[in-house]
């Protein structure tokens, strides 16, 4: 068996193009340009690269970018103050805190400083609750992008057994909630799960989000399983051993070119959503 690739690049480009059309309409009709503010703490090269990439994609989508760069010595209180300013600024529609942050910072406190109406990366507890309860709200960008990719490839989720390897509050946990909302049966696992390979072999859908290169091996998989690699490690390597898994899975995401483009596309789409909501609340439109 040789797996079909689930490519996110083309679908993400379609999403960004549609977001750009909506952004243009907002500017033409109301004189409002959607704005995404990015907050970067420290000088980690990889994080800086990710922020620049998101800013470049924003420009292509007609979304304004505002960049806040803080020193590595920034405290939790200082970061919260900066995010609070952005939350209170009516010209800013979406806020992205690039993570991870330096160890002295309480990341959860920083996330919770984001106005839920501007939480376009879906990192606040309010956004998680919305995903868990099926309420309107922003999806965590990577899990939301994964769900759009699965839908585009007509992956049947109802009644399927999905194993999510990873328990991050902004990736693994929300991915499980969104799969559950699609009527999948969800098992959360992680690097310390006992008999993990045996558990993964029961999965129809595997979401790998553990943050360890080549962690999931091909002989862990049920023949014909759908494999989504949400990991990104040094050297463009995912959390799944791609060569091995490709011989067993029916569908698999490559790294790069699979989940990554979808994450950014959903972030931009939700920024336009936030801008539209803000405009409509001011104009009294439904």
TrEMBL record:
Pathway: One-carbon metabolism; tetrahydrofolate interconversion. Its EC number is 1.5.1.5, 3.5.4.9. InterPro entries: Aminoacid_DH-like_N_sf, NAD(P)-bd_dom_sf, THF_DH/CycHdrlase, THF_DH/CycHdrlase_cat_dom, THF_DH/CycHdrlase_CS, THF_DH/CycHdrlase_NAD-bd_dom. GO terms for biological process: L-histidine biosynthetic process; methionine biosynthetic process; purine nucleotide biosynthetic process; tetrahydrofolate interconversion. It catalyses: (6R)-5,10-methylene-5,6,7,8-tetrahydrofolate + NADP(+) = (6R)-5,10-methenyltetrahydrofolate + NADPH; (6R)-5,10-methenyltetrahydrofolate + H2O = (6R)-10-formyltetrahydrofolate + H(+). Residues 140-277 form the Tetrahydrofolate dehydrogenase/cyclohydrolase NAD(P)-binding domain. Pfam families: THF_DHG_CYH (PF00763), THF_DHG_CYH_C (PF02882). Signal peptide: none annotated. Residues 8-121 form the Tetrahydrofolate dehydrogenase/cyclohydrolase catalytic domain. NADP(+) binds at residues 166-168. The keyword Lipid biosynthesis does not apply. Keywords: Amino-acid biosynthesis, Histidine biosynthesis, Hydrolase, Methionine biosynthesis, Multifunctional enzyme, NADP, One-carbon metabolism, Oxidoreductase, Purine biosynthesis. GO terms for cellular component: cytosol. Homodimer. Belongs to the tetrahydrofolate dehydrogenase/cyclohydrolase family. Catalyzes the oxidation of 5,10-methylenetetrahydrofolate to 5,10-methenyltetrahydrofolate and then the hydrolysis of 5,10-methenyltetrahydrofolate to 10-formyltetrahydrofolate. This is Bifunctional protein FolD. It comes from Kribbella jejuensis. The gene is folD.
